[in-house]
Design a protein that fits this description.
The protein is α/β, with parallel strands linked by helices. The protein is about 45% helix and about 15% strand. The protein is built from ten helices and eight strands. It has helices at about 25-35, 50-60, 75-85, 115-135, 170-195, 210-220, 225-235, 240-245, 245-250, 285-300, and strands at about 15-20, 40-45, 65-70, 95, 140-145, 200-205, 260-265, 270-275. Strands 3-2-1-4-5-6-7-8 form an eight-stranded mixed sheet, with helices on both faces. Helix 2 (about 50-60) links the parallel strand 2 (about 40-45) and strand 3. The longest helix has 25 residues, at about 170-195. It starts with 15 loop residues before the first strand and ends in a 9-residue tail after the last helix. The relative contact order is 0.15.
Length: about 300
């Protein structure tokens, strides 16, 4: 694993993958490399304009790629349901829950959830549940959820999942990334209990230069903070091509185990994919069960662990 790169991705011919947030950054690189290896890739993007730009770019970089664009707004459960219902495939080998928002000013989704919790966790929770029938009927399918080492900023507060009592943008982000890991932990447990061979895993990019860092400051017009993030990306971050490697490893490597957490090898910051440390609270069975139950209630999506 110490020298693992995109050259080591196994052939993906005949496989179908959905990558959320595939119009830029880590999601684009992930989609491109899967397509380059022969997968049929669905780019799940919120913006049609940016999605089409990505589709055109990908067509230039992978001329023989089998790629399609489908609109998906993870901050709107109606959009999530429409996407899942209209997915043009009966089998699904890979779902990469990559899209996310970071450290935004307080806001709510179309359904009234705090934006970071709503998009980063609830949107992907609903999407995975709605696509689960296709995953369950596909031998060797995987669900890869992209978390972050920022999960160390906070455990979830089951009494205040939507940060209604107090909102601190970075703590809320950390809690949403903790939710990603608890979701993976509980999904892996439930799949194993059901005797399914679907593998649920998580990954994180370390510090990778993407649009994620500047989106929050830009939304508030804080040019100084935006400039600070831009400098940090240039000086300290690894490029998106490197940041996407842990998710690609988690998605394709043959030795990946359920509920594993893959990140960069050097201080969990940069480098080739390697097993990554995670906070003990992301392995809490009881917290995982309670978050799961509340997520089903909030989204109205009930998981059924038996394939058709």
């Amino acid at each position: 694993m110490s020298h693992w790169s995109t050259r080591d991705i196994p052939g993906q011919d005949g496989r179908t993958a959905v990558v959320t947030g595939a119009n830029s950054g880590l999601g684009y690189v992930t989609a491109r490399e899967l397509a380059r290896k022969g997968a049929r890739v669905v780019l799940a993007c919120r913006s049609e304009a940016r999605g089409r730009e990505a589709l055109e770019r990908l067509a230039r970089e992978v001329p023989d790629g089998d790629v399609a664009l489908r609109l998906l707004d993870l901050g709107d459960l109606a959009s999530v349901r429409t996407f899942a219902a209209g997915l043009p495939c009966e089998r699904l080998d890979l779902l990469v829950n990559n899209a996310g928002v970071m450290a935004l000013p307080y806001g709510t989704t179309a359904d009234g959830f705090e934006t970071q919790f709503g998009v980063n966790h609830l949107g992907h929770f609903a999407l995975t549940g709605l696509l689960l029938p296709a995953l369950l009927t596909t031998p060797g399918a995987r669900v890869v959820t992209v978390s972050s080492m920022a999960h160390l900023l906070g455990n979830i507060d089951l009494r205040d999942l939507n940060s209604e009592r107090k909102y601190r943008r970075w703590v809320a982000y950390g809690r949403s990334k903790t939710a990603n890991l608890l979701f993976t932990h509980e999904l892996a447990r439930r799949l194993a209990a059901a005797g399914s061979d679907v593998t649920a895993v998580a990954a994180h990019p370390g510090y990778a230069a993407t649009n994620l860092q500047t989106a929050g400051p830009r939304a508030e017009g804080r040019r100084g903070a935006e400039r600070f993030m831009e400098i940090g990306n240039r000086v300290f971050a690894q490029p998106a091509e490197a940041g996407a490697l842990p998710a690609l490893y988690a998605a394709t490597a043959p030795d990946v185990t359920p509920d594993s957490f893959t990140g960069p090898s050097r201080a969990m910051w940069r480098g080739a994919p390697a097993p990554s440390w995670r906070a003990p609270w992301t392995l809490d069975d009881r917290a995982g069960e309670l978050l799961w139950a509340e997520s089903e209630r909030l989204t109205g999506v009930t998981y059924r662990m038996k394939g058709g």
